Amino acid sequence: MAGGKLTPRQKMINLMYLVFIAMLAMNMSKEVLSAFGLMNERFEGSNLSAINMNEQMLAGLDSKAHEDTHFTEAASKAHKVEAASKKFYDFIGTLKGEVLKGVETEKGTGKLPYEAMDKGDNIDNSWFKGEGYSARGNEIIANIEKYKAEIKAAVGNDSKYVSILKEINDKFNVNDVKNKEGLKVKFLEYHFDKFPSIASLAKLSAWQNDVKKTEADIYSSLLGKAAVAAASMNNFQAIVVLEKNAYFEGEAIKGKVVLGKYDANTKPIGFVGPGKIENGQAVIAMSAGSVGEHPLGGSFTFLEDGKSISIPFKGSYVVVPRPNTANISADKMNVVYRGLPNPMTISFAGIPDNAVTASAAGLSSAGGRGKYNLNPGSGTEVVVNVTGKMADGKSVSDKKVFRIKGIPAPQAAIGGQPGSQKGAKARLQSSQITAVLPDFLYDLKFQVTQFVLKVPGQASIVVNGDRVNAQCAAALARATKGDQITISDVKTKIIGDGAGIQTKTAAPAIFEIQ
User: Fold this and answer.
1) Coil, strand, or helix at residue 340?
2) Which residue among 125, 257, 379, 417 is the one 20 to 30 A from 272 at the CA level?
3) Would you say the C-alpha torsion 95, 97, 100, 102 has a positive or negative sign?
4) Following DSSP, what letter does each residue of 149-185 receive, concatenated?
5) Sheet containing 417-418: which strands, arranged edge to edge?
6) Residue 314's Cα: distance from chain center in Å?
């Protein structure tokens, strides 16, 4: 903006404008940055869906090519498009990695800190040099041009791809762009220079989205609705018949693929099975049974040449437990507490609870489906081993390591209030000394058995029990306003659940005389 054949005055104006833009960028609202972040999330989610959809379309083309030679050329073109698209899509991924260099995700959520991504130094210092591109910038332009050329070469000169190629050229036109002042600036400079990093990230995700859309458009054209209809067999459908309808990872899959014919003119005179006949086919309607594998069978009866012909069918289905909770775990927080009955739910997906066994030092059944209590003893870790027996008789196993921690030290409390507080002497004298454990997973109850009361300028007094004694009252009588009375070396014991566990000395409490 400040180069070329501009007058000195115009150069100065443009320079001031750049400074103003920089100041605006520095003060870009958090809402705008967050909006870019949400936009990037939408693009990335859409990209994942597009990848899956394109893979299915490509698989469909391959399938058609094996059935009909008319689709052989279409499948060949599709794979060339897929290779060019993947190469450019992955290259854009490396550019996104450059944008995110040095950016740390938020702990716990794993999300990017959108509101802090208001600078674009990574790109500015890497893609640009002076008033032009750096070596990296030129490499980006070269990859864009190569992608467009490879797509054009893959589809050829067929007229039905003209609109798609035009859309690619429009979206990835790397020619100089006119800015608001009517001055031409480089393509990458116009879209990325001095932009917040989150905005650049969203733009690159949009590029990836454009690549996947183009890929999908070409696949759709190659498939062609008319060609698909012409290659189909109207009354036949390929049916996969497996021995059962649910499998575990690594388990052998056995079955067969058959051609099934159904139409309204082929009507059985009888049907036995879990369903009813509709338009020449049996529509199954039943409720799933208990967890495990169940048989499924019946028969059709047709009339042929005046004779009844029975055609039996046999299969099976597997019922797995209905999910009602999400399996969420924090890898750094796998902790159990020594001396306490830590509750656990243990299960294996797809395996009934009566076929699951668990073992660990201190582990016992708590009643109910998959419910256990783990009461660890000595050591710093405990391993829970789980074994499940599948319907085919094979066993699977897994294990998880938990850290063993002791119960943390409680906090001394005066009149039920921990930490520091202020009040009259009479209030301290009448208050009970207790101990609490805020924000702990278990509701433990502590009884104070001993504490030390210290008045400034006087000897410490050891008290057995949980209330101020006569010696303490005499010391408090000599205390003056502003003196801070310390309750320390508080000894406790747990009553009720957890009784017998050795507790740590409670943190002290402070009482300032008013």
Assistant:
1) coil
2) 257
3) negative
4) HHHHHHHTT-GGGHHHHHHHHHHT--S-EE-TTS-EE
5) 417-418, 411-414, 433-436
6) 40
The two three-digit tokens of residue 344, written as one number: 């656990």
Helix residue ranges, H only, 402-513: 425-430, 470-477
Give the CA dihedral 65, 70, 73, 74, nearest 10 degrees: -70
Q: Please tell me the distance from the alpha carbon of residue 171 to that of residue 178, in angstroms, as a whole number.
A: 16
Can you read off the two tokens belonging to residue 253?
A: 């899959």
Comparing CA positions, the residue from 41, 197, 209, 51 lying closest to residue 109 is 41
Beta bridge partners of 403: 335, 381
Kindly give, in sequence order, each residue whose CB lies less than 8 Å from that of residue 407, ignoring residues fewer than 6 positions away: 337, 338, 339, 340, 437, 440, 444, 494, 498, 501, 503, 504
Q: Using CA atoms, how far apart are residues 435 and 449, in angstroms rounded to an integer?
A: 10
- The separation between the first and the last C-alpha atoms of the chain, rounded to the nearest angstrom, is 70
Show Cβ contacts of residue 123 under 8 Å, excluding neighbours closer than 6 positions: 98, 99, 192, 193, 195, 197, 200
- How far is residue 410's CA from residue 263's CA, in Å, rounded to a whole number? 76
**What is the helix (H) or strand (E) element at residue 126, kind and residue range?**
helix 121-127
Report the C-alpha gap between 392 and 389 in whole angstroms. 8
Q: Which residues in the chain come in under a pLDDT of 50?
A: 1-4, 20, 23-24, 26, 225-226, 228-232, 263-265, 305, 325-326
Q: What is the dihedral of CA 355, 356, 362, 364, to 10 degrees?
A: -50
- Strand pairing partners for 363? 374
Q: Can you give the pTM of this predicted structure? A: 0.42
Q: How many CA within 13 A on the CB side of residue 119? A: 7
Element (H or E) spanning 51, and its range? helix 30-67
Tokens 């999910």 belong to: 323
Q: Which residues pair with 304 in a beta bridge?
A: 307
Instruction: Give DSSP secondary structure letters for 310-374.
Output: EEEEEEEEEE-PPP-S-----GGG-EEETTS-EEEE--BTTB-GGGEEEE-TTEEE-SSTTEEEE
Per residue in 187-233, pLDDT (tens digit) is 998 999 888 988 889 899 999 999 999 999 999 888 873 354 344 45
Q: Sign of the C-alpha dihedral, residues 480, 482, 484, 485?
A: positive
**Distance from C-alpha of 347 to C-alpha of 370, rounded to nearest angstrom:** 6
d(CA 233, CA 165): 34
Chain length of the chain: 514
As a whole number of angstroms, the distance between CA 277 and CA 510 comes to: 82
Place of tokens 């099975």: 273
